[in-house]
Write a structure and sequence with these properties.
Blueprint (H helix, E strand, L loop, with lengths): L6 H5 L6 E4 L2 E4 L2 E3 L2 H11 L6 H9 L2 E2 L3 H10 L2 H8 L18 E10 L2 E8 L5 E6 L4 H15 L4 E4 L3 H4 L1 H9 L3 E4 L9 H17 L7 H17 L9 H6 L35 E5 L7 E10 L3 E6 L4 E5 L3 E3 L18 H15 L9 H9 L13
Parallel strand pairs: 3-4, 5-8, 8-9
Antiparallel strand pairs: 1-2, 2-3, 5-6, 6-7, 10-11, 10-14, 11-12, 12-13
Helix pairs in contact: 9-10
Bound molecules: zinc ion.
Length: 397
């Protein structure tokens, strides 16, 4: 006689946790990975070789299958690189730094290498743990300044820069660069590199990760660069044990998209009709306007609207008698008494601009969408769109 099992015993999970979204089976908010894809996903999670804790964190954000924790433990237990990282007991920092409250307030800098015939400039932000790495040919003050300038122009000029006593960091040139940008240098005690623990720790991650990712490849510049970017993406999107958030979340208040996100169900795309709800300017017949002129010194020629052609084009009689066709973006309202003081006889009947306008207009009659016009709402958005407040204005001299 067949034994009847309760539904929750059969799958060892509450059936209510499952749902189907866009054809993808979900368990709560995680994608259920079918047996045949589990190995592939496991390898993707293992890319950075960050050990069992980080791998589990990464998986929990996105996917699940029965026994996923056991599979993660097994893969890391049998991986030399993961074991290497695990076996290094965390060094006690001899210097405890003040906790930072903003991104790029205090930044730790160090050089790694020569490793695989290259040097690596490593910068770690103490607040977000976001690492930046540049592959360089030498470690001179000039190179260091050049790379720092690149990084600071993206993220912000830091307030404090922590570094060791390397001659490049101690050089007059580098110290002047820091002074000019208002950065306070902090040097670690000689022969005690663990004071600069944040940079030092990432250097270890970098060495292990690169070696593993390059295992079967020739260490050419291209291959090293590829392996480095892969490692950085994994590290930046994986939870950092000291902050319980990924460097990307701390840095941008959002997670950045990775290949793992491809397994999530696709959200239906929202199509925004560019001109749907946006009020387009309308000119009345006889209204006094000026239109854009593309030849000669005068940018504008005054005239009157004869009629509206289609949705966005107008026929305009200029004060000098010429008749022009213009797109609405090339027309401005002016006062009734404005005269065409800069009158100059410049005929542009055959200018490419005019032909284009007519062509565009013909196209528009068939296709009611607008290709050229930037909707006012977007224009407004673009004007207001600056860098996030916390970066402030960045001038790197
Ligand atoms: Zn590993």
């Amino acid at each position: 006689m067949e034994k009847k099992l309760a539904a929750r015993d059969r799958f060892n999970i509450h059936q209510t946790a499952y749902s189907l979204q866009q054809g993808v089976i979900m368990c709560n908010d995680k994608v259920v990975i079918p047996k045949q894809s589990q190995k592939r996903i496991l390898n993707e999670l293992h890319l950075g070789h960050f050990g069992v804790i980080k791998m589990k964190h990464l998986a929990r954000r996105i996917c699940w299958w029965p026994g996923i924790d056991r599979d993660i433990e097994n893969i890391t237990k049998n991986c030399v690189q993961c074991n290497d990282t695990r076996n290094n007991p965390r060094k006690v920092e001899t210097h405890s730094w003040e906790p930072t409250t903003t991104v790029f307030d205090r930044v730790h800098i160090d050089y790694a290498g020569p490793f695989l015939n290259h040097y690596f400039l490593v910068l770690v932000d103490s607040f977000s743990k976001w690492p930046e790495v540049r592959i360089v040919k030498n470690t001179s003050a000039k190179t260091t300044i050049e790379k720092c300038r690149e990084i600071f122009s993206t993220f912000s000029i830091p307030r404090l820069l922590v570094m060791d006593n390397g001659t490049n960091f101690r050089s007059h040139e580098f110290l002047l660069f820091l002074k000019e940008n208002g950065i306070t240098p902090k040097f670690t005690a000689p022969y005690n590199p663990s004071t600069n623990g944040q940079a030092e720790r990432f250097v270890q991650v970098l060495k292990v990760g690169l070696r593993k990712n390059l295992e079967r490849k020739i260490p050419t510049f291209d291959n090293i660069h590829f392996a480095l970017q892969q490692l950085l993406l994994s590290y930046r999107t994986t939870v950092h044990t000291s902050t319980n958030e990924s460097p990307a979340e701390k840095m941008f208040s959002r997670n950045i998209r990775t290949r793992l996100d491809l397994i999530l169900p696709t959200k239906p795309q929202i199509h925004v009709h560019v001109n749907g709800n946006i009020k387009t300017r309308v000119f009345k017949e006889g209204e006094r306007v000026q239109c854009r002129n593309y030849v000669g010194r005068n940018k504008w020629c005054a005239g009157k609207v004869i009629r509206r052609l289609g949705k966005l084009h107008y026929e305009i009689a200029l004060d000098d008698g010429r008749i022009w066709k213009r797109h609405i973006n090339q027309v401005q309202k002016i006062g009734n008494d404005t005269s065409n003081e800069r009158d100059e006889l410049e005929f542009d009947y055959t200018t490419p601009d005019n032909t284009q306008t007519v062509q565009r207009e013909q196209e528009e009659q068939n296709l009611p969408t607008v290709q050229q016009e930037v909707p006012e709402i977007l224009e407004r958005h673009m004007r207001n769109c600056g860098p996030p407040q916390r970066y402030g204005k960045v001038y790197v001299h």
